[in-house]
Amino acid sequence: MTEFDDLIAQFWILGSIGRLAERGLLYRAAAPDDEVSALGQQLLIDTGWLLTDPLRPSARLLAAPPPGVPTSALSGYVREQIARIGRFAEGAPPGWSEPNRDHIRWRGRASGLIAQGIVERCCPDVLQRATDFLDVGTGAGGIAIRLCEASPGLRAVGLEISPAALDVARVDVEAAGLADRVEIRDQSVADLTDVEAYDLAWLPQQFIPRGELLEALPRVLRSLRPDGALVVALAPENDLPNLFSGGGTLPAEEAVKLLEEAGFHTVEVHDEVVTGRR
Ligand SMILES: C[S@@+](CC[C@H](N)C(=O)[O-])C[C@H]1O[C@@H](n2cnc3c(N)ncnc32)[C@H](O)[C@@H]1O
């Protein structure tokens, strides 16, 4: 085995996690006639991702999904990541150009769970009194849907520029019975003109090119009501996946500076986000 073979073997481990999660086979043995899944299970046992007697995910596999996302949802995560690396290898330009509706939908569900946890921790007071939420880069509308489901008095506007994502979001908002509370808008955040319309805004800068982010910050500030809050995700320096996702790397000190320069006050750094108030 060359070192390159070892590298490829890592992909088969990842692929096995995706395949087995999809079929519920992280917790029960594959059928005798499903030889490839059984070999996938053996591979995961040999490499410490699965435990035996009974068959179950190891602690590190349980820790693999993003916070709040169940292990059963790992399949979507694995497929999304492999597809993204594939686009990178093909030479695709940076940007969130996910065309696959299943992947878009998976990201939406995961984002909803992740963002809900973050917002509840970072600005519980705002969440409690909020009646209007701005979801920038709404993707499948996952965050808007999740927060509106959790807060019956909340309405949301989701901004999105990808036709595929806009399609998925509109279908999913309708399916969630939220068409009267969630507006999915075909608009870049760099063109936002709303004034004092929202109490809370979510801005996933890791998917927004820096020029658009700089254009967006004062616009989002203007769109917030007094004491409304903005939540911006941080990203470590020189992070290749983030750069390829279309945004930039945004360390905490730089994020604080950007928000303060845009006019936000009470700018605070939390674990993975920075928040600012209008
Ligand atoms: C990975 S998605 C976020 C997932 C989303 N939160 C969900 O729940 O599905 C990031 C989205 O930001 C969108 N985006 C990128 N630049 C944008 C911009 N200038 N204005 C609005 N959306 C933008 C991308 O098209 C992409 O769908």
List keywords for this structure.
9 strands, binds S-adenosylmethionine, single chain, 278 residues, alpha/beta, Rossmann fold, 11 helices, seven-stranded mixed sheet, two-stranded antiparallel ribbon
Instruction: Average the pLDDT over all residues and give the rounded result.
Output: 92
In whole angstroms, the N-to-C terminal distance is 58 Å
User: CATH top level of the largest domain?
Assistant: Alpha Beta
- Total helical elements: 11
Tell me what the CATH architecture of the largest domain is: 3-Layer(aba) Sandwich
**Strand and helix order:** HHEEHHHHEHEHEEHEHHEE
**Portion in beta strands:** 15-25%
- The parts where pLDDT drops under 50 for at least 5 residues are none
Percent helix, as a range, is 40-55%
Strand order of the largest sheet: 5-4-3-6-7-9-8
Ligand names: S-adenosylmethionine
Instruction: Give Rg in angstroms.
Output: 20 Å
Q: Provide the structure class.
A: alpha/beta
Structure description:
The radius of gyration is 20 Å and the shape is globular. Strand 4, helix 8 and strand 5 (182-186) form a beta-alpha-beta unit. A 7-stranded mixed sheet has the order 5-4-3-6-7-9-8, with helices on both faces. It is of the alpha/beta class and 278 residues long. It contains 11 helices and 9 strands. The mean pLDDT is 92. It folds into 2 domains: 3-89, no CATH class; 101-277, Rossmann fold, CATH 3.40.50. The structure holds S-adenosylmethionine. The site of S-adenosylmethionine (SAM) has 25 residues, from helix 5, helix 7 and strand 4.
